[in-house]
Amino acid sequence: MYRGGRPGGLMRLLNRLDALMYGARWLPLSRTAVLKVAGRRSGAITSVPVAVTRHRGGEYLVSMLGPDANWVRNVRAAGGRAVLRRRGSEQPILLKEIPPEHRAEILRRYLAVAPGARPHLGLSPESPLPEFRRIAAAHPVFRIRPAGGDGLQAGQVPPS
């Protein structure tokens, strides 16, 4: 379904449906959102359904597919600048990558809110913390911050 960080045909269709639901005003789940980021080569805005993980007062995005997932590569190329759509509104954000040594607890929490990611990480929320430390480098984690002060309007993604 996912090869080389890219969804196959069926997953592209399912991701589009998820993106419609995740970004909708009528879907009450606070952990669901749509990440919008400029493509690193085309500059075209891509929309990806994501699960927002809350941990110790912060909000995070986790790549269940690892560092080669397209959204991760696009976010890195865009300097962390993106837009997050949830509950019908869009917010310009800045994503700051968390070093691997600080990811274990966030990854554990992520599996609690995104059970569909469990096969990709190979663990469960009940797995021992050292197991999460072992896989941390393979799964990028980004802290979500408001983009504040960059002159962007809601829904805009800055050029990369």
Report on this model:
Strand 7 and strand 8 form a beta hairpin. With 160 residues, the chain is α+β, with helices and mostly antiparallel strands. It has a single domain, classed as Pnp Oxidase, Chain A (Roll). The chain has helices at 9-22, 70-77, 104-113, 118-121, 129-135, and strands at residues 2-3, 6-7, 32-38, 45-51, 53-55, 58-62, 81-86, 89-97, 141-146. Helices cover 27% and strands 29% of the residues.
Please tell me what the overall shape is: globular
Structural class: alpha+beta
Helix content: 25-40%
Largest sheet: 7 strands, antiparallel
Radius of gyration: 15 Å
Give the strand order of the largest sheet, numbering strands 1, 2, ... along the chain: 4-3-7-8-9-6-5
H/E topology pattern? EEHEEEEHEEHHHE
CA distance, first residue to last residue? 28 Å
Q: Output the CATH class name.
A: Mainly Beta
How much of the polypeptide forms β-strand, as a percent range? 25-35%
CATH architecture: Roll
pLDDT under 50 segments (min length 5)? Answer: 151-160
